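Bumping my old thread because nobody answered last time. Still need a sequence for this structure:
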């Protein structure tokens, strides 16, 4: 209680004071490579220690399924095909080289610490490409980092979702940089083409690639556009070689994915929710609760700031822009949240949708910053309130989803027949 009250007092005041400094109003500048490397290494070490000391509790059976699959046990793994292949071979190699006592859970958590640092660094880089000043870059970074769907995955999380978060964040960073001409679009396009073979849910990145394609076409960069298209097809084709022994074995991979997402929930024929349940008030409540859990602050900022900009007549939607690209990640993710059946219930299976926080926090933060440029004094205080709300949410939920779990499962039961 006292910690929450302290956040509500300190952060709005601190935000107002920080926003008034000349330093915060200066343009965003490049960070030296040595600083980036040093911070990344320190972050990897720090989060690896945290993963051992305070691992996130597991509230569903998926983590144990992942451990079994990495160990080479039973499990199809089509949804995580290349990720399981990479983790399994890396663990085997480390044991051969002398780490015979290294357990799969410890190995996965420490690899996930690396993914977590990559995700946090990439979100900070993405924030830089959305911001006009240092203050805005820091505000966007803090809003992205403090989303529960982001931060919970960085603390010794035993599942595939830290990887999904890292890939989503890196894609957003490189895609935003490509729109500004700082990075070749080949990078985000290739990431989007390869990512689903590591985790099938990352296919949700695909619609946003259209923004990159339109951007290249508008600039008359037809050569780049063809190069990116060829590279994407070639990358996706070669992705099947490690597991299937031949390129372009997409039908075999899709068939394996289908086996991995067999209907186990409310629908007897699909892994998606039945239409009547999808449109029910019960599910609407589940969706709202999941949104608030994953990134409540980002969602509220997005709705409130976008509405404020629209009422003031300052909402500008351009086809080729960072916000449009982010929107084309958020919208498919939201459709996925509405349609996909979380068989362990909306509470216990929350992480199925967790990595969407990367896009919702950046888009919500950007809309908030855009609104705040016309009223910086109000923005500074409200930024502190937003960060305090995120902090209070984290105090209540971080590494604490297992607390009173049975009561939560009564409210959000398993979706099993």
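Sorry it took so long. Here it is:
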């Amino acid at each position: 209680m006292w910690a929450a009250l302290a956040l509500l007092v300190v952060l709005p005041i601190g935000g107002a004071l920080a926003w008034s400094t000349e330093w915060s109003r200066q343009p965003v500048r490049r960070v030296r490579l040595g600083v980036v490397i040093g911070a990344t290494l320190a972050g990897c070490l720090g989060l690896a220690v945290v993963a051992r000391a305070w691992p996130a509790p597991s509230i569903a059976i998926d983590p144990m399924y992942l451990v079994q699959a990495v160990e080479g046990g039973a499990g199809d793994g089509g949804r995580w095909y290349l990720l399981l292949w990479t983790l399994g071979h890396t663990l085997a190699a480390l044991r051969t080289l002398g780490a015979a006592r290294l357990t799969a859970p410890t190995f996965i958590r420490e690899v996930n610490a690396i993914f977590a640092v990559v995700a946090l660094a990439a979100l900070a880089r993405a924030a830089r490409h959305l911001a006009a000043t240092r203050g805005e870059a820091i505000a966007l970074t803090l809003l992205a980092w403090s989303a529960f769907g982001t931060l919970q995955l960085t603390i010794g999380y035993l599942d595939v979702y830290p990887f999904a978060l890292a890939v989503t964040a890196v894609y957003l960073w490189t895609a935003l940089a490509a729109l500004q001409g700082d990075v070749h679009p080949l990078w985000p396009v290739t990431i989007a083409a390869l990512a689903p073979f590591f985790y099938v849910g990352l296919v949700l990145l695909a619609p946003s690639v259209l923004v990159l394609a339109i951007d290249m076409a508008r600039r008359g960069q037809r050569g780049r556009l063809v190069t990116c298209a060829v590279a994407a097809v070639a990358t996706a084709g070669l992705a099947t070689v490690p597991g299937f022994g031949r390129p372009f074995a997409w039908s075999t991979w899709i068939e394996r994915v289908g086996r991995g997402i067999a209907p186990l929930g409310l629908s007897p024929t699909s892994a998606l929710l039945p239409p009547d349940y999808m449109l029910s008030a019960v599910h609407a409540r589940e969706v709202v609760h999941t949104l608030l859990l994953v990134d409540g602050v980002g969602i509220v900022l997005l709705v409130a700031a976008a509405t404020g900009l629209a009422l003031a007549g300052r909402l500008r939607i351009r086809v080729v822009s960072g916000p449009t690209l982010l929107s084309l990640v958020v919208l498919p993710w939201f459709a996925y949240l509405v349609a996909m059946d979380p068989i362990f219930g909306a509470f216990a299976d929350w992480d199925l949708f967790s990595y969407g926080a990367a896009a919702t926090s950046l888009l919500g933060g950007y809309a908030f910053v855009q609104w705040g440029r016309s009223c910086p004094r109000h923005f500074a205080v409200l930024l502190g309130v937003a960060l305090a709300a995120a902090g209070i949410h984290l105090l209540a939920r971080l590494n604490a989803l297992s607390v009173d779990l049975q009561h939560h499962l009564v409210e959000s039961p398993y979706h099993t027949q």
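The longest helix spans residues 281-311. Let me know if any region looks off to you.
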